[in-house]
From TrEMBL:
It is found in: Membrane. It comes from the Archaea. This is Rhodopsin. Keywords: Membrane, Transmembrane, Transmembrane helix. Pfam families: Bac_rhodopsin. It comes from Natronobacterium gregoryi (strain ATCC 43098 / DSM 3393 / CCM 3738 / CIP 104747 / IAM 13177 / JCM 8860 / NBRC 102187 / NCIMB 2189 / SP2).
Length: 255
Protein backbone atom coordinates (compact mmCIF):
# COMPACT_ATOMS: atom_id res chain seq x y z
CA UNK A 1 0.00 0.00 0.00
CA UNK A 2 1.53 3.38 -0.98
CA UNK A 3 2.61 5.72 1.80
CA UNK A 4 0.51 8.86 2.10
CA UNK A 5 2.39 12.13 1.67
CA UNK A 6 3.02 13.74 5.09
CA UNK A 7 1.05 16.89 5.84
CA UNK A 8 4.30 18.80 6.42
CA UNK A 9 5.39 18.04 2.86
CA UNK A 10 2.18 19.53 1.47
CA UNK A 11 2.61 22.63 3.63
CA UNK A 12 6.26 23.14 2.70
CA UNK A 13 5.59 22.61 -1.01
CA UNK A 14 2.71 25.10 -1.02
CA UNK A 15 4.76 27.57 1.02
CA UNK A 16 7.66 27.41 -1.45
CA UNK A 17 5.36 27.80 -4.47
CA UNK A 18 3.57 30.81 -3.00
CA UNK A 19 6.89 32.28 -1.86
CA UNK A 20 8.22 32.11 -5.41
CA UNK A 21 5.01 33.66 -6.70
CA UNK A 22 5.34 36.47 -4.14
CA UNK A 23 8.86 37.19 -5.43
CA UNK A 24 7.53 37.23 -9.00
CA UNK A 25 4.78 39.65 -7.92
CA UNK A 26 7.41 41.89 -6.33
CA UNK A 27 9.34 42.00 -9.59
CA UNK A 28 6.12 42.79 -11.45
CA UNK A 29 5.25 45.49 -8.91
CA UNK A 30 8.58 47.25 -9.40
CA UNK A 31 7.79 47.48 -13.12
CA UNK A 32 4.57 49.40 -12.42
CA UNK A 33 4.46 53.20 -12.42
CA UNK A 34 5.56 54.40 -8.95
CA UNK A 35 2.14 55.76 -8.00
CA UNK A 36 0.48 52.40 -8.73
CA UNK A 37 2.96 50.18 -6.91
CA UNK A 38 1.05 50.18 -3.62
CA UNK A 39 -1.56 47.90 -5.19
CA UNK A 40 1.18 45.59 -6.41
CA UNK A 41 2.66 45.51 -2.92
CA UNK A 42 -0.75 44.41 -1.66
CA UNK A 43 -0.53 41.31 -3.88
CA UNK A 44 2.95 40.59 -2.54
CA UNK A 45 1.69 40.95 1.03
CA UNK A 46 -1.27 38.64 0.44
CA UNK A 47 0.75 35.94 -1.27
CA UNK A 48 3.64 36.27 1.18
CA UNK A 49 1.34 36.01 4.19
CA UNK A 50 -0.11 32.74 2.94
CA UNK A 51 3.38 31.43 2.15
CA UNK A 52 4.50 32.18 5.72
CA UNK A 53 1.27 30.65 7.01
CA UNK A 54 2.02 27.33 5.32
CA UNK A 55 5.63 27.40 6.54
CA UNK A 56 4.49 27.84 10.14
CA UNK A 57 1.80 25.20 9.74
CA UNK A 58 4.46 22.72 8.62
CA UNK A 59 6.21 23.34 11.96
CA UNK A 60 2.89 22.86 13.80
CA UNK A 61 3.06 26.32 15.33
CA UNK A 62 0.11 27.45 17.46
CA UNK A 63 -2.27 24.53 17.02
CA UNK A 64 -5.52 23.86 18.82
CA UNK A 65 -7.60 20.68 19.07
CA UNK A 66 -10.89 20.87 17.15
CA UNK A 67 -13.58 18.35 16.30
CA UNK A 68 -11.97 15.72 14.09
CA UNK A 69 -8.39 17.04 13.99
CA UNK A 70 -5.89 19.62 15.22
CA UNK A 71 -6.11 23.02 13.54
CA UNK A 72 -3.47 25.75 13.28
CA UNK A 73 -4.53 29.21 14.39
CA UNK A 74 -1.68 30.54 12.24
CA UNK A 75 -3.75 29.53 9.22
CA UNK A 76 -6.45 32.02 10.13
CA UNK A 77 -4.00 34.75 11.08
CA UNK A 78 -2.42 34.41 7.63
CA UNK A 79 -5.81 34.64 5.97
CA UNK A 80 -6.59 37.76 8.04
CA UNK A 81 -3.54 39.56 6.65
CA UNK A 82 -4.23 38.34 3.11
CA UNK A 83 -7.89 39.36 3.11
CA UNK A 84 -6.91 42.77 4.45
CA UNK A 85 -4.75 43.26 1.36
CA UNK A 86 -7.49 41.96 -0.95
CA UNK A 87 -10.10 44.21 0.66
CA UNK A 88 -7.82 47.23 0.22
CA UNK A 89 -7.40 46.58 -3.50
CA UNK A 90 -11.11 45.88 -4.03
CA UNK A 91 -12.17 49.03 -2.20
CA UNK A 92 -9.61 51.18 -3.98
CA UNK A 93 -10.38 49.97 -7.49
CA UNK A 94 -14.13 50.28 -6.88
CA UNK A 95 -13.69 53.73 -5.31
CA UNK A 96 -15.87 52.40 -2.50
CA UNK A 97 -14.69 54.62 0.33
CA UNK A 98 -13.45 53.55 3.73
CA UNK A 99 -16.74 52.44 5.26
CA UNK A 100 -17.71 50.04 2.48
CA UNK A 101 -14.16 48.73 2.22
CA UNK A 102 -14.10 48.14 5.97
CA UNK A 103 -17.42 46.33 5.56
CA UNK A 104 -15.85 43.94 3.03
CA UNK A 105 -12.98 43.26 5.42
CA UNK A 106 -15.22 42.77 8.47
CA UNK A 107 -17.55 40.40 6.60
CA UNK A 108 -14.54 38.43 5.36
CA UNK A 109 -13.08 38.16 8.87
CA UNK A 110 -16.44 37.20 10.37
CA UNK A 111 -16.85 34.44 7.81
CA UNK A 112 -13.26 33.31 8.34
CA UNK A 113 -13.06 33.28 12.13
CA UNK A 114 -16.69 32.20 12.47
CA UNK A 115 -15.82 29.05 10.52
CA UNK A 116 -12.95 28.43 12.91
CA UNK A 117 -15.21 28.99 15.93
CA UNK A 118 -17.77 26.53 14.55
CA UNK A 119 -15.05 23.86 14.56
CA UNK A 120 -14.26 24.51 18.22
CA UNK A 121 -17.76 25.02 19.61
CA UNK A 122 -20.67 22.58 19.76
CA UNK A 123 -24.41 22.54 20.33
CA UNK A 124 -26.31 25.82 20.46
CA UNK A 125 -23.14 27.91 20.30
CA UNK A 126 -22.04 26.19 17.10
CA UNK A 127 -25.47 26.76 15.55
CA UNK A 128 -25.42 30.45 16.48
CA UNK A 129 -21.93 30.93 15.05
CA UNK A 130 -22.91 29.13 11.85
CA UNK A 131 -25.83 31.54 11.46
CA UNK A 132 -23.49 34.50 11.95
CA UNK A 133 -21.17 33.09 9.29
CA UNK A 134 -24.10 32.78 6.88
CA UNK A 135 -25.19 36.38 7.53
CA UNK A 136 -21.62 37.63 7.07
CA UNK A 137 -21.35 35.78 3.76
CA UNK A 138 -24.64 37.30 2.59
CA UNK A 139 -23.33 40.72 3.60
CA UNK A 140 -20.11 40.14 1.69
CA UNK A 141 -21.97 39.11 -1.45
CA UNK A 142 -24.21 42.17 -1.12
CA UNK A 143 -21.22 44.49 -0.83
CA UNK A 144 -19.33 42.93 -3.73
CA UNK A 145 -22.28 42.69 -6.12
CA UNK A 146 -24.33 45.60 -4.79
CA UNK A 147 -22.65 48.53 -3.04
CA UNK A 148 -19.18 48.26 -4.63
CA UNK A 149 -20.56 47.38 -8.04
CA UNK A 150 -22.59 50.59 -7.97
CA UNK A 151 -19.60 52.76 -7.11
CA UNK A 152 -17.20 51.22 -9.62
CA UNK A 153 -19.44 52.10 -12.58
CA UNK A 154 -18.79 55.78 -11.80
CA UNK A 155 -15.01 55.35 -12.32
CA UNK A 156 -13.69 54.04 -15.66
CA UNK A 157 -14.02 51.06 -17.97
CA UNK A 158 -10.57 49.76 -16.99
CA UNK A 159 -11.35 49.86 -13.28
CA UNK A 160 -14.78 48.35 -13.74
CA UNK A 161 -13.36 45.46 -15.76
CA UNK A 162 -10.64 44.75 -13.19
CA UNK A 163 -13.10 44.92 -10.29
CA UNK A 164 -15.55 42.59 -12.04
CA UNK A 165 -12.83 39.98 -12.54
CA UNK A 166 -11.65 40.31 -8.95
CA UNK A 167 -15.09 40.03 -7.39
CA UNK A 168 -15.87 36.81 -9.26
CA UNK A 169 -12.49 35.38 -8.28
CA UNK A 170 -13.16 36.26 -4.64
CA UNK A 171 -16.65 34.75 -4.78
CA UNK A 172 -15.30 31.56 -6.34
CA UNK A 173 -12.60 31.30 -3.68
CA UNK A 174 -15.02 31.85 -0.81
CA UNK A 175 -17.40 29.26 -2.24
CA UNK A 176 -14.56 26.75 -2.41
CA UNK A 177 -13.31 27.53 1.11
CA UNK A 178 -16.80 27.32 2.62
CA UNK A 179 -17.59 24.03 0.90
CA UNK A 180 -14.30 22.65 2.22
CA UNK A 181 -15.20 23.89 5.68
CA UNK A 182 -18.60 22.21 5.61
CA UNK A 183 -17.42 18.82 4.33
CA UNK A 184 -14.20 18.82 6.38
CA UNK A 185 -13.37 16.38 9.15
CA UNK A 186 -14.39 19.04 11.69
CA UNK A 187 -17.99 19.23 10.39
CA UNK A 188 -19.61 16.61 8.14
CA UNK A 189 -16.45 14.52 7.93
CA UNK A 190 -16.90 13.80 4.21
CA UNK A 191 -13.26 14.64 3.46
CA UNK A 192 -10.26 13.07 5.10
CA UNK A 193 -7.54 15.33 6.45
CA UNK A 194 -5.18 14.63 3.55
CA UNK A 195 -7.72 15.35 0.81
CA UNK A 196 -8.85 18.48 2.64
CA UNK A 197 -5.29 19.80 2.88
CA UNK A 198 -4.52 19.19 -0.78
CA UNK A 199 -7.80 20.75 -1.92
CA UNK A 200 -7.37 23.73 0.40
CA UNK A 201 -3.84 24.32 -0.91
CA UNK A 202 -5.15 24.22 -4.47
CA UNK A 203 -7.86 26.80 -3.68
CA UNK A 204 -5.26 29.07 -2.08
CA UNK A 205 -3.00 28.84 -5.12
CA UNK A 206 -5.89 29.67 -7.46
CA UNK A 207 -7.02 32.62 -5.34
CA UNK A 208 -3.71 34.31 -4.60
CA UNK A 209 -1.98 33.63 -7.91
CA UNK A 210 -5.14 34.76 -9.70
CA UNK A 211 -5.47 37.87 -7.52
CA UNK A 212 -1.92 39.00 -8.10
CA UNK A 213 -2.00 38.16 -11.78
CA UNK A 214 -5.18 40.13 -12.41
CA UNK A 215 -3.96 43.17 -10.49
CA UNK A 216 -0.50 43.35 -12.05
CA UNK A 217 -1.80 42.83 -15.60
CA UNK A 218 -4.07 45.88 -15.32
CA UNK A 219 -1.60 48.73 -14.90
CA UNK A 220 -3.93 51.28 -16.52
CA UNK A 221 -6.68 50.57 -13.99
CA UNK A 222 -4.14 50.88 -11.16
CA UNK A 223 -2.83 54.21 -12.46
CA UNK A 224 -6.36 55.58 -12.71
CA UNK A 225 -7.11 54.36 -9.20
CA UNK A 226 -3.95 55.90 -7.75
CA UNK A 227 -4.72 59.23 -9.43
CA UNK A 228 -8.19 59.65 -7.99
CA UNK A 229 -8.68 57.53 -4.86
CA UNK A 230 -7.48 57.93 -1.27
CA UNK A 231 -8.47 55.00 0.92
CA UNK A 232 -5.67 54.72 3.48
CA UNK A 233 -4.03 58.08 4.14
CA UNK A 234 -0.53 56.78 4.86
CA UNK A 235 -0.54 54.63 1.71
CA UNK A 236 -2.41 56.77 -0.80
CA UNK A 237 -1.32 60.20 -1.99
CA UNK A 238 -3.72 62.77 -0.50
CA UNK A 239 -2.50 65.47 -2.89
CA UNK A 240 -3.36 63.63 -6.11
CA UNK A 241 -5.52 65.67 -8.49
CA UNK A 242 -9.23 65.07 -8.11
CA UNK A 243 -8.78 63.08 -4.91
CA UNK A 244 -11.51 62.72 -2.33
CA UNK A 245 -11.08 60.76 0.85
CA UNK A 246 -13.05 57.62 1.52
CA UNK A 247 -14.91 59.28 4.40
CA UNK A 248 -15.86 62.22 2.17
CA UNK A 249 -17.13 59.83 -0.51
CA UNK A 250 -19.34 58.03 2.03
CA UNK A 251 -20.71 61.35 3.32
CA UNK A 252 -21.39 62.55 -0.23
CA UNK A 253 -23.14 59.31 -1.07
CA UNK A 254 -25.47 59.70 1.90
CA UNK A 255 -26.49 63.29 1.10
Amino acid sequence: MPTMIPNATIFVTTSVLLGLVAVAFLVGTLRLPPQARRYGYATVLACGAISVKYALMSAEVWTISTTGTDESIVRFVGYTVAWGAISYVLGSVADAGRLKTAGVFVCSLTTLWGTFASWVLSGTAETAVSLIVLLALIGLVYLLFGALSRTVVTTSDHRELLYTKLKFLVLLAWAGLLVLGVVSAQNLGLLGGFVGLVTGSYVDLILFVGFGGLVLRNATALEETAASTVLVSFLDDPEADGTATGVEQDVDAST
